Amino acid sequence: MTILGEYALWIALPVAIWGMALGFTGGRTQRGDLVLSAERSIYAVFFLLVLASAGIVAAFLGDKFEYLYVAGYSNREMEFFYKVTGLWAGQRGSLLFWALILSFFSSICVFQNRKKHREFMPYVAAVLQTVLAFFLIVLLFADVNPFERMAFTPANGRGLNPQLQNYWMTIHPPTLYLGFTAFTIPFAFAVAALLNGRLDARWIQLTRRWILVSWLFLSVGIIFGMQWAYRELGWGGYWFWDPVENASLLPWLTATAFLHSIQIQEKRGMLKVWNMSLVLLTFLLTIFATFLTRSGLIESVHSFAEDLKIAFIFLGFLGSVLAGCVVLILYRLPKLRSENRIESFVSRESAFLFNNLLFLGAAFAVFWGTIFPLVAEGVTGQKISVGPPFFEKVNFPIGLALLTLAGVGPVIAWRRATKRNLQKNFQIPIGVGLLVALTLWVMGARHGLALVTWSICAFVVTVIATEFWKGTRARARIKGEGYAVALYHLVTRNRRRWGGYIVHVAMVMIYFGFAGAAYNVDVRKHMLPGDQLEVVSPFGHTYTLTYEGLSVSIGKGQRNLLWQAIATVSVEKDGVRQDFLTTEKRQYVTSAQLMTEVGVASTIQEDLYLILAALDDVDGVIAADSQAQGIDLQVLVKPFVSWIWFGGLMLALGTIIALWPNADPRRAAVRPEPEPEAEATPAPAMAGAAD
Amino acid sequence: MMKHGRFMVGLVGVATVVSYLIWTGVSETMVYYLTPVELMARVEADPTFHDIGIKVSGQVVPGSYARVKGELLHTFIVRDLVDESITFPVEYRDALPDTFTDEVEVVLEGFLRTDGVFEAATLLTKCGSRYEATPEDLAG
Fold first, then answer.
1. What is the rounded distance in angstroms from the CA atom of residue A232 to the CA atom of residue B9?
2. Strand A521-527 vs strand A532-536: parallel, antiparallel, or unpaired?
């Protein structure tokens, strides 16, 4: 099975190159047989990559430790689940997994369009095969072949790093890869449009769902990563501005900008060059993110390898794609002229443009901060670096401006907003925002940044809630429906618009949670069994924590676990007994390091977060009498953290609503020039009815 | 009726503000990233180099680690990766990452006090081999 997989990987490369060549030739010569062959080659590559991946999984399950990759990430004792997910546990496997997902998405795309949009498909197939061929070349020639065998067979493997033995860690990378790879489809259509000259909004309409799917997986993948950091890394944070975190944020920022700017092209025929550039930039950044994760170019806790060969191959590919696309855009420049111009400074177009500028500004700042050490070293020979303070200083103001626009954009009029439009839509929300700030101030909140954030949150929520309320009420009156039914019909009639609003609310929830960090409480204490500790939370709750003792057990429950020491803490909140919390240190067979497991009690207000910071020991031996075992306990109280995770769910919900297929047949058939949607301008009929 | 001028002013304004944020952000928060040898040379040449925020990477001297109970205060000695004679003591007040052992390579951010103790505000561990096994590792 594994040998078969290895051969499959070798066969996939010529097939991909074949498909690439036929796609480009077929597109130019309009020869249907060549195009068909190019499209079928995509199915073939997918099939071959399934075989290759199955080969790796089989090697994991069969404990084939002669394979370097298997020996590095597995051992005989590992659970079935982690053996299967070993496919993407390390660099070699993840690159194969990346290619597998891309070929899967490519196959879906080719299948969906087997009878439609034939003017795009030859080039789409060619571009997809180019990207696949690139990843196959990396896999086969950059010393990262997952099928590499050693001259000897070790008796057992090293096993998986215990930090990666976590539910979130097994789903976080594949979710991000789904997001990264799905964006290749819009990119392929964009290049196809540049090649075939159909430069209206068609390529955008055809790939709108792919863009949303990609954005959904990127967003969720990032949030899974935060969840993992919060639960597993044991320092109470969820974001560290680590290069690899930044690398996943970069394409998210540009993709979010793109999601907004394509609406201007669809509605007003503007920003064509801009959108082409954004799709190209986002695609390059997804590759850059993969590259940054998988090469040790920039120091990071995530960086897997420090191999320069793979860096040169990646940079070469990024450079060629960039050069090729810039040439194509310049060549097509006459056809990419705007059909309209911006009429007013105060309009939705302009709000979207500022949104785009800010997203790109944030992306540039994050990019610059991430590569700054490299640039500084290259230019001055001096190693200089910037850390979290830099990213926070730059991104907090930009982030707040973007949050404000999330409230402005949805209701400001297209083309030109009148004074009346502004007054009607913003008077009340601004009032609510100010009122919230004032109330919080009176209640004793003094952290400026948090106050501003919560105030803007209130503004945005009021704007969007008012929109929902007006629309629902108007519909209920006109159609005589109940409010729940009216709301349902309102949303399903224009999923894209209302789904988008739900995503805006989700972002408000996430910001709301972020701002809670301003009120984190951090207490440390050395404790003996029976000792008590009182912690007062920002909400005025008093937690009385009693350290009950430490129980040490030898290798129970989980395989590969050598021992675990569990500290039990009983919790009273305002005098009321709560569930016990435990926090532990673990030692795995597979790693010299200790692992800390934190204990978290989460409520909608705040998280109580316990860290077993250290165990008393004498020369590495802990006390035999567990009643005398002292520990260092770190207690954090973290307000509103759970809002970030709820926000993530809400974001997924809104995006799914936006990309759900519309039952309405009028919209299923895409016309070259779409009619402006009736509800795109803020529903004059409804607003009228609401007055 | 294009108010092109006003619009461009807005765009240029946003671009300027973002650039300004990046520029001041870098100049106010950047830190030198040095090896212990470089750090010692700097301090020798220029005593005002104490108390300046820097980042330094080195290796924890095996056996030098100690903990002060209850305060989450960790002390250890770091030496240069090449010239092992260059060392300095470190104080770090926070929970240690799980990857910390008393022989690991660390990246510290903080400053060198005039008493010669490096006060670390952040501590990262560097383990290139943590994720990627080589045949030599597996044979041993």
1. 47
2. unpaired
Q: Which of B22, B31, B104, B129 would best serve as a mutation to test chain A binding (most A beta carbons within 10 A)?
A: B22
Residue A341 lies in a domain: no
Who's near B47: CB < 8 A, 6+ residues apart? none
Round to whole Å and give the CA distance between B123 and B106: 7
Domain identity same for A686 and A614: no
List CB contacts of A35: < 8 A, sequence separation 6 or more: A22, A23, A26, A27, A118, A121, A122, A125
User: Which residues is B72 bridged to in the sheet?
Assistant: none
Q: Give the Cα separation of A660 and A73 in Å (integer).
A: 39
Q: A653 and A639: one domain?
A: no
Statement to judge: residues A558 and A629 lie in one domain: yes
Q: In the structure encoding, which two tokens stand for residue A537, read together?
A: 């939370």
Cβ within 8 Å of residue A169, ≥6 positions away: A163, A228, A232
Domain assignment of residue A104, yes or no = yes
* Whether A490 and A541 share a structural domain: no
Residue tagged 């002060």 (tokens): B68
User: Are both A536 and A612 inside the same structural domain?
Assistant: yes
Contact check, Cβ <8 Å, A373/B25: no
Question: How far is it, in rounded angstroms, from Cα A126 to Cα A121?
Answer: 8
Three-state DSSP state, A411:
coil
Q: How far apart are alpha carbons A21 and A218 in whole angstroms?
A: 31
Domain of residue A462: give its range: 413-513+644-662+680-690
Residues near A188 by beta carbon (within 8 Å), at least 6 away in sequence: A109, A123, A124, A127, A128, A131
* C-alpha closest to that of A277 among A225, A330, A207: A330
pLDDT tens-digit profile of B64-112? 888 887 677 899 999 998 888 889 999 998 878 777 877 788 888 888 8
Task: Say how far apart CA A274 and CA A49 lie, in whole Å.
Answer: 35
The domain boundary, picked from A115, A138, A165, lies at: A165
Instruction: Decide if A403 is inside a domain.
Output: no
A432 vs A587 pLDDT, higher one: A432
Q: What is the number of CB-based contacts under 8 A between chain A and chain B? A: 161
Q: Which residue type is seen at B13?
A: G
Burial of A383 (0-12, 13-18, 19+ CB in 10 A): middle
Angle at A230 between CA A225 and CA A233, to 5 degrees: 95
Residue A200 lies in a domain: no
Q: Which residues does chain A have within 8 Å of residue B100's beta carbon, measured at their own beta carbons?
A: 593
**Is-contact A2 A55, C-beta < 8 A?**
yes
- In one-letter notation, the amino acid at residue A4 is L
Where is the domain boundary, A139, A165, A191? A165
Q: What order do you get walking across the sheet with A606-615 strand by strand?
A: A521-527, A631-639, A606-615, A599-602
* Cβ pair A305:B131 closer than 8 A: yes
A493 and A598 belong to one structural domain? no
Predicted ipTM > 0.90 = no
Chain B residues closer than 8 Å to A524 by CB: 70-72
Q: What CATH number should be reported for the domain holding residue A133?
A: 1.20.120
CB contact under 8 A, A91 and B131: yes
Q: What is the pLDDT of residue A416?
A: 78
Of A193, A195, A212, the closest CA to residue A203 belongs to A193
Residue A458, pLDDT score: 96
Give me the number of domains chain A comprises. Answer: 3
Cβ–Cβ contacts within 10 Å for residue A117, how many?
17
Q: Are residues A599 and A558 in the same domain?
A: yes
Pair A30, A160 in one domain: yes
Q: Which of A385, A618, A636 to mutate to test the interface with B (most CBs of B within 10 A)?
A: A385
- The number of beta carbons lying within 10 Å of the beta carbon of residue A97 is 22
The most confident of the ranges A128-132, A303-307, A481-485, B116-120 is: A128-132
